[in-house]
Structures are given as structure tokens and as C-alpha cells.
Amino acid sequence: MNISVVIPLLNEDESLNELYDWIAKVMQSNRYSYEILFIDDGSTDNSWEVIQRLSKKDPNVKGIRFLQNYGKSQALNAGFKEVKGDVVITMDADLQDSPDEIPELYNLIANEGFDLISGWKKKRYDSKIRKNIPSKLFNAAARKTSGLKLHDFNCGLKAYKKAVVKNVDVRGEMHRYIPVLAKNAGFTKIDEKVVTHQARKYGVTKFGIDRFINGFLDLITIWFLSKFGKRPMHLFGLLGTIMFLLGFLFSFYLGIDKLFLNPTGKLITQKPIFYIALVTMLIGTQFFLAGFLGEIILRTKSDTKRYSISKKINL
């Protein structure tokens, strides 16, 4: 199979028929073998009924329905587990991503050897204050932290080599950082392509300030996991050693001062530096314990179920 199109969605029943017709037209005109996988992330409208009707009309349409809303990352994770195409395309269901971009994206992956191509919505039709300015700040921080020179990490329109989606674990709200996850997994041929961004035709945006804040927190998490996720003792052990040595040096100085330099002076317990030394050594010990616990958890952890699927279509 040439292409798998993965579309996570939440309450997009108005746009699904139009989106399906558009994708099918592009696929058939280019003679691609394909599948369209809709992941219904707990919609409360008629989205699942629309997917069911489309699947009866076209066996290339497949669906996954979550019991409740788990988030875009979990939807992508479920979709990635099921895809069969050599090239995987992800896009949003709100018609702001153009299926006409698919042939060029497919060519970049299948024929030019890229592992991942991220869309760049250079010209946007979103609110500048609510979305554009926060997105620019967010992308600048992501570029600085990850080392990837991408302009639009959060663009839903992306193309992947099949091996990429089978080797990245998208959890939490990490869908924004799939290029970073791919890089950390060893895929280095990552680039971007300017894509068309269209104004929303139906429904309302799901973007809010909480997603912006969560994006920065997730960025810090990914940076930490990429550096120390497999060796937490390297970070906590280093911090613990530094803190404990500082406390020990303070204590050593107090002992020398009391025994030899000023034996008739104040009691050690009457000096503030004594308590600073004590607290510093305690913090150092706690950092050590955190490192040991991290190493133990890393070696004994088992994956927990992150979402529940109620129904599947054609899978």
C-alpha cells in the first residue's frame, strides 16, 4: 500500500464528507493504493455515524472510536499502530489542511528518501493574538531546544516513512513534538515543506491558552527525557554530589573553626551556616535517592493502558 492517511478528530461531523471526497479524488487521480483512517477521539456529535457511512461506501475508509476524549496524541498513537501504508500522512479534519499537498509529500518520502516532512503554514488564517503570536514563540523555543530548524512544529499536516511512526511513542500531549521524538529515535532526514493553510469552514477551533502552556511544559519534558530519560542517575547523581560536597565543606569549615581557629566562640548550632550545611547535605542525599528510584523505575516499569477503544471499522 502506498499511503495511509491518519486523521484524528473531535466533533467534526460537518467537514468529514467533504474531506473524504477531497482525499479520495487526490488518491484516485494519482492512482495511489491507500487507506483513510479516522480516529474519533470521543466526539459527542455525529462524527462516528458519518465515518460508518463512509466505510460502507468505501472499504478504504477505516475507523477507530475512543470511549471518551483522550487527546490528539493518543488518537495518533492508536492510528500509527494500525497503518499499513509505506508513507503515512497525518492531517486535521477541519479542512484547514489541503489534501492537494499529498502527492508532493509522498514524493519527498518515497522518492527523495526523507524520514519525515513537516508542513509549514507560512501564511495563516488564524487569530494573530490567540494563535499566531503564541505559535511563533512556541516554535522558536522548540527550535532552540531540539536543534531542528522547523518553523511549524505543531502543523497537523506531516508525512512520515512507515518506520518512523512504528518507532515513536506518542503520549501525553507530545503530538506537537513528533519530529523531536523521531530525531531522538535516530531518524535524521527531517525537513519541512510550505503548505497551504485554509480558513476554518465548519465548527470552532479547539486551541486555547492551556494548550500553549502545556506545549512549553511538554517541551521541557522532552528535553529532559532525551538527555536523561535512560540515565536519570547522571543528572540526579551529579546534583546530589555537588550539593552534598557543598554541605560537607561547610561542615568541615565549622569543625576546623571550632577546634582550632576560635574554640571559645559561639556553639556550632548557634551559627546559621550550620543549618545551611545540614540542609544542603540533606538535599544532596535526596537527589541521590531520586536518581536511584529513577533507575529502579526505568528497569521495572511496564506500559499502562492509555486509552480504551470502543469500536473499529475495517481493521
TrEMBL record:
The keyword Ribosomal protein appears for this protein: no
Coiled coil: none
Gene Ontology MF terms in the entry: undecaprenyl-phosphate 4-deoxy-4-formamido-L-arabinose transferase activity
Gene Ontology CC entries for this record: plasma membrane
InterPro entries hit by this protein: Glyco_trans_2-like, Glycosyltransferase_2, Nucleotide-diphossugar_trans
Keyword entries, A-Z: Cell membrane, Glycosyltransferase, Lipopolysaccharide biosynthesis, Membrane, Transferase, Transmembrane, Transmembrane helix
GO biological process: lipopolysaccharide biosynthetic process
Domain Glycosyltransferase 2-like span(s) in chain numbering: 4-167
TM annotation in the entry: 235-253, 273-298
Cited Pfam families: Glycos_transf_2 (PF00535)
Protein name (record): Glycosyltransferase involved in cell wall bisynthesis
Protein source organism: Lutibacter agarilyticus
